[in-house]
Amino acid sequence: MFGRKRAVSCSGAKLLTRRNGLEHNRIAFTFSRKFGKAVERNRCRRLSREAYRQLRNKLRKGYDLVLLVYPGQDVFLVRMEQMRGLFSRAGLLDSRGS
Fold first, then answer.
1. Is the C-alpha dihedral spanning 12, 94, 50, 81 positive or negative?
2. Strands ordered across the beta sheet of 13-19
3. pLDDT tens string for the chain (98 positions)?
4. DSSP track, 2-69
5. Which of 24, 28, 19, 63 is nearest to 48 (CA)?
6. 8 Å CB contact between 80 and 49
7. Using an 8 Å Cβ cutoff, are 16 and 1 in contact?
8. What residues pair up with 84 in beta bridges, in sequence order?
């Protein structure tokens, strides 16, 4: 995934995308090396998954997605706006997803 990809980033996160030829998206959440303890990583993973669930029906299908998250403010609305911005910049939001 990290070899041939398209990447967009914002403060606190980076999104790597690649077409997968399927009729659905696949997503993975990963964290920078110095993110913190397991409790912090797991909380961030839960927030990120929920933000993705809120947005997934507005996304184009057929992509592998990797969200690389950096330490910082872990608030659901902040994570949601980060992901919406990343998906928009990557061209993955459908016209109905605006």
1. positive
2. 6-10, 13-19, 63-69, 26-31
3. 555 668 898 888 999 999 988 999 999 999 887 888 888 888 989 999 999 999 999 999 999 999 998 887 778 898 899 999 999 999 998 865 44
4. -SS-EEEEETTEEEEEEE-SSSS-EEEEEE-TT---HHHHHHHHHHHHHHHHHHGGGBPSSEEEEEEE
5. 28
6. no
7. yes
8. none
**70 phi, psi to nearest 5 deg:** -105, 155
pTM above 0.70, yes or no: yes
Q: Enumerate long-range contacts of 53-56, CB under 8 Å, 24 or more apart.
A: 54/80, 55/80, 55/83, 55/84, 55/87, 55/97, 56/25
For the record, the structure tokens of 19 come out as 């077409």
